Amino acid sequence: MNAVQLPVLNPPLKGFLRWAYTLSITSAHKETIPWYYSNFIQLFCKKNFLEDGRQYYVDFFRGKPNELNFNNPFLLTCSVNYTILESLALDAWPKFFADQIRSGYYCVVFLDEARLSPAASYQKEPFPHHLFIYGFDWDKKVFYASMFDHTGVYRNLPIPFEEFQDAVQSMRHLLKEKLTADHHTYFYKYEPHFPYPFDRTAAIDQLRDYLNGETHLNRINYIPDNEEAFGIKVYDYLQMYYDAVESNDPRLGDRNDVRHLHVLWEHKKMMSERIGYLVDEGIIPYDEELVEGYKDISKRAMKLRDQYIRHDIRADQEMFERLRLRFEQFRNEEPVLMHKLITLLEG
Fold this sequence. Notes:
By secondary structure, this protein is α+β, with helices and mostly antiparallel strands. The protein has eleven helices and ten strands.
């Protein structure tokens, strides 16, 4: 087989690539859909971003470790670091990864994305990052990968073997000079799970955690470090972040203003789609207030994100007041809808 492409689907969540990469694999299999809608309810964010100067983030929470680390029941996962791969000659890397793809493994390779021509970071400062590879063509000497390109669009595209090797060699140098840490390379094989019906108990538990601003996941193996806020409390720190942006607070670290609003929209979109799935499957009865309520929140969250993108291009003096208004609205409206959803699921 001189050319292989493993099945992938345009992922439903793209705010962080650990979701985009793993969900692009599992979403291609309809038997994973009940699992998908049983999850992705909880949010979390960083609390101490002004104190320590590190980047603020908002993301879905499915426990620890994160999704790249053995956290998806449908994916057989292997991981290796550069120490293990050190004995592999650079010109042997394309064949090594092509062989894994032939065996049915998707590859998520840690490399310097600044050496890949489609990337926004191309020929700029080093950018250690994970690249998702799902296929190759040996005759054309390319891998088929999914990534955000220089226009900010997540898409599938070819990566020449030569660029791939250059990115690996650059990462080897960065690690040798201790300019970055090794975040490992991962291999995933899709393995059909035993039947996974929609899990009411898991969904209700996550909804309650969201409303209470807490998490009960992984308490056996991980002691909460108090560095993160959960669920409804995320709005407090989103507001704190954008207040700091508005005032040009010098304590702000690396900024990613639009991503936070994109993830917020993905969460509301996911909640709305989940409710539609539950109604369609007969798991809960149709409830107009619930269905239309989350559709409306989702629309407003998307509009808020799009308005901020325009604000980034041309400053809108009313943007930050708009953010305050929307965060307050969502914080007041969501508990009502979530309590209704819990009641329907329990019934």
